């Protein structure tokens, strides 16, 4: 079997573009992959056009190790976010083809399952005014949909250091969510790399009474020694890793023991096998895996196949029940969350079918997402005021 074509499709929403890749073969089988870029979609498409010509077309889709190695190292230079995201899309599609060819779900090819369902956490549920009353009501609605874990960023457009009234409001929003969901639902506090080290420590200590399951990216991701200082001074679990795009770049994080949970994005770090290898290294450092996922149905399906057989997996992010729920129609087949858990996909390959016609009906809107703009958390459901 040989790859004969690589086609790309972009589905637009007000705040995110979802990029899909369809890989075709000379035996009539096709596979799909997906990633979500922030402001770099056209760069991704340009890279994929060149990579298809130079590395992908003519390859055997079963030879994933060889293909990923050539895409990553066959061009002189260092593979960053753009290249690793393109590699991820093609790699996912190859697993999809393999599963279809063998009549097996991808999780069987990755080593089989260690669980029958995958715990999910809701994101994108808090597109409401930043008041304790509104966050309280929104959190209750998410729990009513069956979720047993919720993530949110309560900090508005905050950066470096919060004004006292903003700090009180942000902590108050976390308190309101905890009150809404009770003690047995996990709350996960997203910090988006906003804070100076001292402010991150101060905020984390004020959040501790509400028992978050983690604080995420408390400081910008470029300086792991700063993250180590935060981890040293707070008693909450620390999660990070979504903005690391090569598993070798996790080496320092492991050496410093600065995180309890790592959050690679399957769509940015080279695909399923790269993430599986990273998870194995994390396990040797007693760290858990909670993949970042702001993608649509294909990327969500890929994450579920990974989670099925990853022993140190913790929980899976899911936006698509709350933000742009219609994007599920781009590739139907992902199991729905039931009582807080995804069932495992059962069809061959990734278990989803791409719908190019639906995607064509929802073209890119030139999405731009600014975490430091007022009201960014509305995610396009209304215009930012700044």
From TrEMBL:
It comes from the Bacteria. Keywords: Lyase. CDD domains: MR_like (cd03316). SMART domains: MR_MLE. Its EC number is 4.2.1.6. The keyword Iron does not apply. One of its GO terms (molecular function) is galactonate dehydratase activity. Residues 132-237 form the Mandelate racemase/muconate lactonizing enzyme C-terminal domain. It is an enzyme of class 4 (lyase). The keyword Lyase applies. This is Galactonate dehydratase.
